[in-house]
Amino acid sequence: MMMSATGSSNIFWHECPVGKVDRQKLLNQQGCVVWITGLSGSGKSTLACSLDRELHSKGKLSYILDGDNVRHGLNKNLGFKPEDRTENIRRVGEVAKLFADAGLICIASLISPYRDDRDACRAMLQDPNFVFMNMPLEVCEGRDPKGLYKLARAGKIKGFTGIDDPYEPPLNCEIEIKQKDGVCPAPSEMAVQVVSYLDQKGFLQA
Q: Which of 40, 112, 188, 196 is catalytic?
């Protein structure tokens, strides 16, 4: 029996007879996490939804953990201070780990700006697959779908990633998506790229 990671002597991990391999056989896929990181406006949510749709069309079960959506419930008590951002990523990482253990392809779409936080998630997850939306700040700010860059430039939002809070680009990621000849790839093209990677790695079969 494994003792709790908290160090408590009266909490133990309880093993069940139906395990991850059994669930994967049922779903005919392998549970894993696709973690999409990048600046606000870089296309993370667009890719996540397109990827989810592409997987669904292939009969694969996936679920999106969106950075904004989780702050409506699971992480609604967290702000945007560095320590809150770290806890936000930790919690999502733990939930993503559970989804992967359930046999699902979990798509986590978050800015996740700090390298240490992403590395902690990578160490936590059994099958992490990081996708870096490597889009220039000027492109993301030009899109500004939520009007947040404008507010940050006006000083109405403090600690906004890319403006007055850093985004630390990944040093190691499985997939990097960027402009080609100054043109951003279409959502379907990005999704096919990720699905092809997952297929090559064997995640789309049990």
A: 112
